[in-house]
Amino acid sequence: MPHPATTLQEPGRAVAPHLRRLLDFAEPRAGDVCLDVARGPGPLPAALSGLVRRVTAVDAASPLRSRNARTATTTFGTGPVRIADLGEEPVDAVPPSHALPFEARRLPAGAVRADASALPYQDRSFSLVTTRFALFHLGRPERVLRELLRVCRRDGRVVIADLVRGNTAGTDRDRIERLRDPNHPGTPSIAGLTELIVSAGANVQRLDVFTVERPLEPWLAGASDADAADVIRTELLDEVDGGPRTGAKPRIIGGELWFTQSWAHLAAEPI
Description:
Layout: E1 8-10, E2 13-15, H1 17-26, E3 33-38, H2 44-48, E4 54-59, H3 63-67, E5 82-85, E6 112-113, E7 126-132, H4 141-150, E8 152-163, H5 173-180, H6 190-199, E9 202-215, H7 216-220, H8 226-240, E10 251-253, E11 256-270
Parallel strand pairs: 3-4, 3-7, 4-6, 7-8
Antiparallel strand pairs: 1-2, 5-9, 8-11, 9-11, 10-11
């Protein structure tokens, strides 16, 4: 059995395998002017800095979420994670073929607060627009997506990272997600997400769908309350022991409880 992929080190910075995969997919260029739209703090703007000309970070978290003590975005630091293409057994993450030229500098502190469906930028202002685990949490996703496309240059790209489910998979998996976060909007199918992008006025250039096997406890740290976390933990342990399936595919690795999610990266070009 392979060991969990560990954090990959760059001079002055640690890069988690899942974030490195997203950076490799986004293909940041030295001349890019980037906009990242998130629901709270996240690692992507800092990871992009040093790879591009400029990064603007927008915190589009609603006032209700900004008052919440829970983590406002899906992150789990630089800890272990297993990554595999969808439908394959999880394997150790493999570094991309080229080294990423990270610099040690950081972004300016803070981020712009703005409504994701009414961004305060002119049309075609950015060559790379990113959003990570936020599109379905910032209001009506079709409106947010149209706004991301509006501020993206014609020859630029919008890169979306989010949870997905297989086109034939049911929505049972969302029950566990909603136990952790009652505001979870539901996991889109791969086809549903691509159709949303096309209907918003873009072409899907590239698609990367894969499974992520991750430790449970860091994820449960963002649960709505301790009781909800206990229910999730109990249900997943019961499944490991042969109980009812939750859709999370839990198993014990190194004495810890791990579970599986399906993620997708999509690169879209405005029409």
